[in-house]
Amino acid sequence: MVKVTREVVERSGINVDELLELLVKNAAAELTTYYYYTILRANLIGLKGEGVKEIAEVARIEDRNHFEALVPRIYELGGKLPGDMKRFHDLSACPPARLPENPSAEEILKVLVEAERCAVRGYTQICNMTFGKDHRTYDLALAILNEEIEHESWFSEFLGEGPSGHLMRRGETSPFVSKFLK
Amino acid sequence: MRCFTAKELKEYCGKNGKPVYIAYKGKVYDVNGSFLWKNGKHQALHSAGEDLTESLKDAPHGEALIKRYPVVGCLKKK
Lengths: 182, 78
What we know:
The structure holds 2 protein chains of 2 kinds. By secondary structure, chain A is mostly helical. Chain A has one domain (3-180): Ferritin, core subunit, four-helix bundle (Ferritin, Up-down Bundle), CATH 1.20.1260. Chain A has 6 helices and no strands. Chain A has helices at residues 3-11, 16-42, 46-76, 85-90, 105-130, 135-158. Chain A is globular, with a radius of gyration of 17 Å. By secondary structure, chain B is an alpha+beta fold. Chain B has a single domain (2-75), classed as Cytochrome b5-like heme/steroid binding domain (Flavocytochrome B2, Chain A, domain 1, Roll), CATH 3.10.120.10. Chain B has helices at 6-10, 64-67; strands at 2-4, 21-24, 27-30, 41-42, 46-47, 71-75. In chain B, a hairpin with a 3-residue loop joins strand 4 (41-42) and strand 5.
């Protein structure tokens, strides 16, 4: 734990233990999503799967990066990851993104978009809690939120729900979160 | 359909084998089936067995997510 780092957040009025619980739950969501997306990605086959697989892969790797970015902040604030990985899985902030019974590209997309929507809500909550109070966690949560919103927008567009506003994906993975991974 | 007092609703907090109920706008919902209400807590901030009508105003989601779940009763006004 970093003493003054935690103290200034406490003094801003945030319940740090509650914030830590949320950060750990969202870290669990990221790591489990990385795992489940590996299965979903593997099942995006055939002509319809081909069009989605690359963007699903980007989301998968970025969600893993979100886990990596969250861990240091959890420990800075005096928290920790559970010692038991099964317990970590079960306290995830979002339901497991399991392979649907009918693993068509469309059904997989529905699972993907719901997973991203859960993440958008989760990081919005953390941003709301920390805005103007815990600047570092806010910066981190906002960076992750930006990427989760992009994920939702891609999958939503693939489902025909309307334009995502994104014309092309260029450059490095994790354009917003990468600064926390250095 | 059963009507719960606030005190009765508190028992349905997911502990001691009790199901997980929450109240919203006068109705009581069974959220036992929700992954996000496991063990009677939601996102570290909310406990089951409570009226969450006011809390929803600050939530990052709307009432549609609550209304997915079955109504099992009503909440008596104080």
